[in-house]
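Re: the 344-residue chain
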Amino acid sequence: MACKYVRIAGNRRQVGVALGKLARPIMGSYLEQSGTWEALRPWRGHPFVDELAQQTQAALPEIWDEFEGLAEGLRMPLKDVLLWHCRGDLLHSTTDGCTSAALRTADGTRWIGHNEDGDPYLYGRCHLVDVALDDAPGYLSFYYPGSLPGHTFAANRVGLVQTINNLRTRQRHAGVPRMFAARAVLDCTTLDEAVALLHDLPHAGGFHHTLGAASDPRLLSAEVTPGSVSIQEIGRRYGHANHMVHAATRGQAQIVTDSSRARQNRIEGLVDGWLPESGSADMLAALLDTEGKLPILRTAKDDPDDENTLATAMFEITDEAVVLRVYDRKARADIALDVMSDPE
């Protein structure tokens, strides 16, 4: 199974502590084998990291409370946990990949699909966390050990859906680290609120957000980088890998890996071939596609970006409900949950 389902409830700090405790058993071994963690160590104690912390505390105090609880639950120094959360803002390239797709079917249903690609060490070691908060909608999210939820695939209890793709921008600005911004989106209740948040926050790093909501017929593609936020409304179909493709952002300095280029070309080709009657089965087949030397579904031990597909998510969005199905490299779902219904 790609991930195990866990329920968590409480205030901000309590939720953070529970998330930290969940990750504590493997966090040491995870970081020990991580080349990303090794690359981050020269940033320990750097004033720039302190500035990122200050900007986050000022802009997102509630998320910072969760983060402090996470460090407490992990029993790790807060500054080390912060450094880990800033990995994509400090390093131009990290082992975070992903491919997302979106589709609007003839009956008005919106679909968002996503391959969560990351450190192969984490395959089978992640969780799907179902979080109930005292002061926010609560959410379901794929959870990397020791990282705030939200920067993977997730949906909140009012039906806002978000999937995240890594962008390897060469910019490095003072602002809110991208993982904190992605977590903050899950506290929003509408697409417009999420878009306003992304526009208003000062961004330290870059992510691509695919956004949808039960309360809104739109599907949105957002490329968010330091100093630039590009929002495009998705028509009937869409695919996105790990580099900027919007006209407003693709000219920015970035790293485009061979895998990202190959997956972008492949997902665009598959998406362009979808017919008016195409549906969720076609999207799932695209995410599980193994065509080519650098395929969309990534299982190779010698993947050039050191990434493998850890889970595949399919969100079915209607005006009344959001259903999440999670797949483990196959066409049968391991987990199926109605996000907007009260958990039993």
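The radius of gyration is 18 Å.
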